[in-house]
């Protein structure tokens, strides 16, 4: 009965004619932590101990997720990015974890992670070398897929440096088949469209990509500054038409990591960063020393009203509308529904201008349609502000570099 219910559910809510990777994973956007954003290669542990990618770091993230409420809020995948291996494969041509930094190997880390109910992610590149010149998977798809499966990997990020365009288009599909052949479901995170667009200067064919990957990068890496976050958000606003058409359960556009815990953002900027990412239904991947997450950032990360919008099972990417003064109104339709007819909606009003603005808008223009009205919640405070009819205007004051976010539940 339950299974039947689930089938009906997916049947009802998947966009028509969209094929997706049939591994049962990432039906909501993955949440977790990945090493690259803050630690980058992290292999100079003597010179830069504070940026060392090693076993101790990974276990510290696992412990933080397990002990500090992140796991309960949905943070699940802990992902080791580039630079984790020895320079040479072993005599069976298998990849070997760096013996100094990962002395007990990857199976040990996977077991530690799984024992706490969390999931383990790793990284490779589609070429013979990784982007940072460690051994890559070209010529070894079969062996590497089996190795990752034996280690207990649940998520694989596959980068796309150093190969020609034709190879990208073939190899991501091939590697995906090898992953499938292992029988171990792994979230397949592809950088395929990014390399097509920004290295080979062609238009990615998302229709061809979406059935083969659970998520994909389509834009530049984030770096540790507010500018980088703003540029990514503006890119998603501009590319909404292209990106939203191939986005939903099992297939996510990935705007790259959340830069919390790196002392890069003010409180209002961190609100914008996380609010827009949940409105997009983007993967939420932290990258930092978990002990450096500020109390305010943690409050946002564990705000279940916010997370619920991002983890909504419909997985609809919010649509951006340009208002006056460079203010953008993002609108997202989501669950719960009233009587299988009327959706809930979230509205995020983002101000990138340098001055505060008073904004008026009519939610009715952006889709709300229940004649019984809505109850309006401020997502950051969790307070129910008031009940509105279909015809009421909204009036909000948005400070510079800030966001006001409301969820409307049908009454
Ligand atoms: C492999 O692909 C088949 C067919 O698409 C699918 O039913 C199965 O769940 C996949 N298995 C894994 C481990 O991804
Ligand atoms: C909104 O309406 C509901 C249902 O009629 C009611 O229970 C609630 O108290 C109202 N909330 C406010 C803030 O007026």
UniProtKB/TrEMBL annotation:
UniProt signal peptide: 1-20
Enzyme class: hydrolase
Gene3D superfamilies: Aldolase class I (3.20.20.70), Golgi alpha-mannosidase II (2.60.40.1180)
Keyword terms, alphabetized: Disulfide bond, Glycosidase, Hydrolase, Signal
InterPro entries: Aldolase_TIM, GH, Glyco_hydro_27, Glyco_hydro_27/36_CS, Glyco_hydro_b
Pfam families registered for this protein in UniProt: Melibiase_2
EC number(s) per entry: 3.2.1.-
Matches recorded under PANTHER family: ALPHA-GALACTOSIDASE, ALPHA-GALACTOSIDASE/ALPHA-N-ACETYLGALACTOSAMINIDASE
Similarity remark: Belongs to the glycosyl hydrolase 27 family.
Subunit structure: Homodimer.
Protein name as annotated: Alpha-galactosidase
């Amino acid at each position: 009965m339950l299974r039947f219910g689930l089938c009906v559910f997916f049947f009802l809510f998947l966009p028509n004619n969209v094929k997706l990777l049939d591994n049962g994973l990432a039906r909501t956007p993955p949440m977790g932590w990945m090493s690259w954003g803050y630690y980058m290669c992290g292999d100079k542990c003597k010179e830069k101990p504070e940026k060392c990618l090693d076993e101790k770091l990974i276990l510290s993230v696992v412990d933080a997720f397990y002990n500090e409420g992140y796991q309960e809020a949905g943070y699940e995948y802990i992902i080791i990015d580039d630079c984790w291996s020895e320079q040479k494969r072993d005599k069976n041509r298998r990849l070997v974890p760096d013996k100094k930094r990962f002395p007990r190997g990857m199976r040990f880390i996977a077991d530690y992670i799984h024992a706490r109910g969390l999931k383990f992610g790793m990284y490779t590149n589609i070429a013979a070398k990784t982007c940072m010149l460690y051994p890559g998977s070209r010529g070894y798809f079969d062996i590497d897929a089996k190795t990752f499966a034996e280690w207990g990997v649940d998520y694989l990020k596959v980068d796309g440096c150093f190969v020609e365009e034709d190879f990208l288009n073939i190899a991501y599909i091939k590697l995906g088949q090898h992953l499938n052949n292992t029988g171990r479901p792994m979230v397949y995170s592809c950088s395929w469209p990014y390399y097509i667009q920004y290295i080979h200067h062609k238009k990615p064919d998302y229709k061809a990509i979406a059935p083969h990957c659970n998520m994909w990068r389509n834009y530049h890496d984030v770096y540790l500054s507010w500018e980088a976050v703003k540029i990514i958000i503006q890119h998603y606003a501009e590319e909404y038409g292209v990106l939203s058409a191939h986005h939903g359960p099992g297939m996510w556009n990935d705007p790259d990591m959340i830069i919390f815990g790196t002392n890069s953002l003010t409180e209002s900027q961190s609100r914008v960063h996380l609010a827009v990412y949940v409105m997009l239904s983007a993967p939420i991947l932290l990258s930092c020393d978990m002990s450096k997450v500020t109390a305010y950032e943690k409050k946002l990360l564990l705000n279940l009203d916010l997370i619920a919008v991002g983890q909504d099972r419909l997985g609809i990417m919010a649509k951006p509308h340009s208002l006056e003064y460079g203010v953008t109104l993002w609108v997202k339709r989501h669950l719960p529904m009233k009587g299988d007819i009327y959706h809930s909606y979230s509205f995020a009003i983002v101000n990138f201008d340098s001055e505060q603005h008073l904004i008026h808008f009519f939610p009715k223009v952006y889709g709300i349609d229940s004649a019984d009205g809505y109850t309006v919640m401020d997502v950051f405070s969790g307070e129910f502000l008031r009940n509105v009819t279909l015809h009421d205007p909204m009036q909000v004051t948005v400070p510079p570099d800030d966001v006001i976010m409301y969820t409307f539940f049908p009454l």
